[in-house]
Fold this sequence. Notes:
Chain A is an all-alpha fold. Chain A is built from seven helices and no strands. Chain A is 75% helix and 0% strand.
Amino acid sequence: MFGLSNPQRFMAFTGPLTPVLWGLAAVLLGAGAWLSFSVPADYQQGDTVRIMFVHVPAATLGLGAYAALGVSSFFALVFRHALADAAARAAALPGAAFTALALFTGSLWGQPMWGAWWVWDARLTSVLVLFLFYLGYMALRASIDDEQKAGRAAAVLGLVGLINLPIVKFSVDWWNTLHQPASFLTPGSSGLDPVYLPPFLTMLAAYGVLFAALWLTAIRTEIRRRRVMTLRARSAQEA
Amino acid sequence: MLDLDMTPYAAFVWPAWGVSALVLAALTARAVIASRKWKRELAKFVAADSETDGAQVARSAVAPKNTEQLP
């Protein structure tokens, strides 16, 4: 595992893996969409239950991508490892997009079910804060010309943002919120009707594999970009 | 059997799925375009360099000697 921290080995290992992930993500997304519109409507929520199949995976990956960003930031900051810095940077945009999708689809689910597009309850607010951390991370990186300084400053922000992850996860338990508590990862049994498990799990897997494909592709691109920059600088020095 | 009649919630279900599909497609397109661009840039650099005296630079672009630290 730690051998992959070597960029050359990382490129060799992920080269054949990345197309497989892209293909698997496409298959899972297709199957997940088909399953999502094959199950019956919920007896209480009607067809809005189908929003769950895009909302929950987006929210889960929004959190997961930030965990990846935070852990990578830790390694980048403590060990000054350039591949970890590339990994943190590569996780930011997909993570922000997934979090934005969670907020948007949640709002579309909330209006017919709660009668409100938005409420300032703990879960929604903490997810909005998560989205702002993503934006702050990307803005900070873009605002400093020196890439090493930008990486270090953004890594500190990335680490600070990790504090928000348990707040998002447990906000529905710690406070009275309009948002429903966790219904799938509930100890004992799933609160989700078994008929909805196949589309839900397929879409969750599809989003997970898609994120892996996006992340690995972005890290590989970042490695190539840095090599080009170095080679340009080296040839400019030699000229 | 597919059930595509979302009445009376079509105005909520289809935008949620539609925007999700658009965003995922945009993320994918951006990742693929950026990947191709830098792959092309690196290949161009290596090719141009191998025509001149910069063989060592070209070698390091493909398989840098010091791979422990990225530039």
